[in-house]
Specification:
- It is built from 14 helices and 14 strands.
- With 389 residues, the chain is of the alpha/beta class.
- The protein has two domains: 4-290, P-loop containing nucleotide triphosphate hydrolases (Rossmann fold), CATH 3.40.50; 295-373, MTH889-like domain (Alpha-Beta Plaits).
- The strands form three sheets. It has a six-stranded mixed β-sheet, sandwiched between helices. A four-stranded antiparallel β-sheet has the order 2-1-4-5, with helices on one face. A four-stranded antiparallel β-sheet has the order 12-13-11-14, with helices on one face.
- Strand 12 and strand 13 (338-347) form a beta hairpin.
- The chain is elongated, with a radius of gyration of 27 Å.
- The structure holds adenosine-5'-triphosphate (ATP) and magnesium ion.
- Magnesium ion is lined by residues 107-108, 225.
- Magnesium ion binds at residues 107-108, 225.
Length: 389
């Protein structure tokens, strides 16, 4: 079997010959575009409808447009939910970019705007240089979005037949489509159940089929809204390695994904943005965001057979606290006056050799050393809480 990369290149070739000059136009625009995704002051307001008692009716419904017309006629002011408030983002080609944020922060709205499902009110958004509002046709040729509510599979067809159906819709030539479908079914572990009816698929299997469908066309930009929700831990880990190692590193695909799984974001994202109530409140590498709130780490040292001598102990703690970057030293002394260990709060860049030399001078035998870094979860909670306050 050909490698996935070779098949992908074949697909691009087929696409290119099928669409002729149009493709060279996309390619030149794609090559010229500085960023894979760029947004400038992106704003989206959803109209809300209130009942007479002032309660909120909830999500946007199909009758909303009629209500809007009546509201205008009756000169009644409408109320809005500001889902996005001036989002500025620049995502490089081949970058894996994570969107984090509490429920209702605007993650799905941003993804839906980029894949042209929702139209923004103000600002600009570009995918590979194409304006999502003015050139939606070119935008959807360059990206594929996987949303949790994505459906469109026929319940009576098998998983494989569903993928073959979409290959046909995408205009992928038969031989290339066959190879690609088999390759993707194998890649996602669905091969053994490929000939089962879609209605027999579990939620996780349906998710994997969505992923296969997203990868049929080999687009340069992929958008995932909570891609691993509903997947078992092994499948989620396989998805992450597929995104990081194959799609981003090998094929240079740009990936934007929203997730509530902070470990996932830390594991695969080059950069993340934390959204809260429609605004970006932090945007950096996971490592930097991790330290954005807590600039310290905790350094714990365990001793083998130290006795705690009141006078010497106090001198050692004073000497440790005098080291630049050390903010506190707490001894761990048991009831028999044994010095079991020390914990120190230190700046993340502190040189630990100064600390060790103070301990050595006190003839203490070190049995283990541990450092506890602040977690991305702690930073996330602190950043979003701080903003709430
Ligand atoms: N079709 C709609 N009509 C009205 N309001 C909407 C609509 N879609 C989203 N909203 C509102 O816009 C805001 C942002 O919603 P969005 O779905 O983008 O959030 P999210 O960050 O994806 O949240 P979650 O983590 O829960 O998926 C919310 O206040 C939501 O209620
Ligand atoms: Mg969402």
């Amino acid at each position: 079997m050909k490698s996935g990369l070779a098949i992908s290149i074949n697909l691009m070739d087929c696409f290119a010959s099928a669409c002729g000059g149009m493709v060279s136009q996309w390619y030149s625009s794609t090559m010229n575009a500085k960023y894979a995704i760029e947004t400038i002051g992106l704003t989206k307001k959803y109209p809300t409808r209130r009942d007479d008692s002032g309660g909120l009716y909830g999500r946007h419904s199909s009758t909303d447009s009629f209500v809007a017309i009546f509201d205008v006629l009756r000169n009644r002011k409408r109320s809005y939910i500001e889902a996005l408030r001036g989002i500025d983002l620049q995502i490089r080609k081949g970058e894996i970019f994570g969107l984090l944020g509490p429920n209702g922060a605007g993650k799905t709205t941003l993804i839906k705007i980029l894949c042209t499902l929702v139209i923004h009110d103000e600002g600009e958004a570009y995918v590979n240089g194409f304006d999502v509002k003015k050139e939606p046709g070119n935008v959807v040729k360059h990206l594929q979005a996987v949303l949790p509510e994505s459906r469109g599979f026929n319940w009576r067809l098998t998983g494989k037949q569903n993928l073959q159906f979409y290959s046909l819709l995408y205009g992928i030539p038969e031989k290339a489509a066959r190879e690609r479908v088999n390759y993707l079914l194998e890649l996602t572990g669905l091969k053994d159940r490929a000939n089962d009816g879609y209605q027999q698929y579990s939620t996780g299997m349906q998710r994997k089929l969505l992923l296969c469908r997203a990868l049929l066309r080999n687009t340069p930009v992929l958008l995932f809204d909570e891609p691993t929700a509903g997947l078992d831990p092994t499948a989620a880990a396989e998805f992450r390695s597929l995104v990081r190692d194959k799609l981003a590193r090998q094929e240079g695909t740009t990936v934007m994904l929203s997730t509530h799984n902070l470990n996932e974001a830390q594991d695969i994202c080059d950069r993340i943005a934390i959204l809260d109530r429609g605004k970006i409140i932090a945007c950096d590498t996971p490592g930097k965001i991790q330290y954005a709130v807590h600039d310290e780490k905790v350094f714990s040292i365990a001793f083998a057979d130290g006795r705690f001598d009141e006078e010497r102990g106090r001198q050692m703690l004073n000497a440790l606290e005098a080291i630049q970057g050390v903010h506190g030293a707490t001894p761990d002394v048991d009831t028999a006056r044994n010095l079991r260990g020390l914990s120190l709060r230190v700046d993340k860049d502190t040189d630990l050799s100064d600390i060790l030399s103070v301990i050595m001078k006190n003839d203490l035998k070190i049995s283990s050393i541990n450092t506890t870094e602040p977690s991305l979860e702690e930073a996330f909670m602190a950043i979003t809480r701080r903003r709430g306050e």
